[in-house]
């Protein structure tokens, strides 16, 4: 199944995709409630002219760094070496669901940054409470997967990294996390073969396959769930796929650019970059 949150004039509703059409699933509640209820089957009806929203507003987001290829490229351009600890510890940072927007919306350019970048990621959505699980069992707790465009203010990131905290405003502003277009249930996704790709204005900028993740999704979930309960609706990101950011290519986004991120059966997450509005008090 490919589940969506859509708008068709009566507020956000839960649906599923039937090809490119949206079918309402007959559930009164948001995506987290739907997942917690076990994705119940209801009375379905087709929805013409539905507009897709972010499929979920997560309880929280945890973002990892699982692709060695991305780190080799990115850390070189950031003037850093990959720390030896990265190969042992699937570390992450956290963000909040209130920053999430969905497909076919304009990407807000933060007023305090001059260098906006995209990041192509696959994200797992937790389906049931999960604590102290093994990596081998962790995928049993996943409801499905979606695409995550983790926007980054690179000039701000270079200033924040030496402090040893964060990232902070380099990664977090209203609209800095983009999810969509749907949540494909776990049975739809083969993590051994899934190809991720990003295109800007129709030109392929990069991509990779999840088979090349140094830390698997099982590893990521097991690490996050040590002595802590992950809840339905929590989102865990793979980190950027190799070639999935402009930082790796020394190429940067411009206002009006169209970004398309594709991941097999999940489909294409498409957004347009907005203009930068500089505040007068800066």
Describe this structure in words.
It is a single chain. The protein is mostly beta strands and 282 residues long. It has two domains: 2-52, no CATH class; 60-276, Fumarylacetoacetase-like, C-terminal domain (Fumarylacetoacetate hydrolase, domain 2). The protein is 11% helix and 34% strand. The strands form three sheets. Strands 1, 2, 3, 4, 5, 6, 7, 8, 11, 12, 14 and 17 form a twelve-stranded mixed sheet that branches. The mean pLDDT is 95.
Note the topology.
Blueprint lengths: L1 E6 L5 E6 L2 E4 L6 H6 L8 E3 L3 E2 L7 E5 L3 H10 L14 E5 L3 E2 L4 E4 L6 E2 L2 E7 L15 E9 L1 E2 H7 L16 E9 L9 E6 L2 E7 L7 H8 L10 E3 L20 E6 L4 E9 L6
Parallel strand pairs: 6-17, 8-14, 9-19
Antiparallel strand pairs: 1-2, 1-5, 1-14, 2-3, 3-4, 6-7, 10-13, 11-12, 11-17, 12-14, 15-16, 15-18, 18-19
């Amino acid at each position: 199944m490919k589940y969506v949150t859509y708008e068709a004039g009566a507020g956000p509703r839960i649906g599923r995709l039937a090809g490119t059409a949206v079918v309402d699933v007959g559930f009164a509640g948001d995506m987290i409630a739907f997942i917690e209820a076990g994705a119940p089957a209801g009375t379905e009806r087709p929805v013409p002219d539905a507009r897709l929203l972010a499929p979920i507003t997560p309880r929280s987001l945890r973002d990892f760094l699982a692709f060695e290829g991305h780190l080799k490229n990115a850390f070189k351009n950031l003037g850093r070496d990959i720390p030896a600890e990265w190969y042992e510890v699937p570390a992450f940072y956290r963000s909040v669901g209130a920053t999430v927007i969905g497909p076919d919306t304009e990407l807000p350019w933060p007023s305090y940054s001059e260098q906006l970048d995209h990041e192509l990621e696959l994200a797992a959505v937790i389906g049931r409470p999960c604590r102290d699980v093994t990596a081998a069992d962790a995928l049993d707790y996943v409801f499905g997967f979606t695409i995550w465009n983790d926007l980054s203010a690179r000039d701000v990131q270079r200033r924040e990294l030496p402090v040893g905290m964060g990232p902070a405003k380099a990664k977090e502003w209203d609209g800095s996390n983009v999810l969509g277009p749907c949540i494909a249930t776990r049975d739809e996704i083969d993590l051994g073969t899934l190809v991720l790709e990003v295109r800007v204005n129709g030109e392929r900028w990069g991509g990779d396959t999840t088979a090349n993740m140094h830390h698997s999704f099982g590893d990521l979930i097991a690490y996050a769930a040590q002595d802590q309960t992950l809840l339905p609706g929590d989102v865990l990101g793979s980190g950027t796929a190799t070639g999935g950011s402009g930082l790796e290519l020394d190429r940067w986004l411009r206002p009006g650019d169209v970004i398309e991120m594709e991941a097999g059966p999940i489909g294409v997450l498409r957004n347009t970059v907005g203009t930068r509005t500089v505040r007068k008090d800066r």
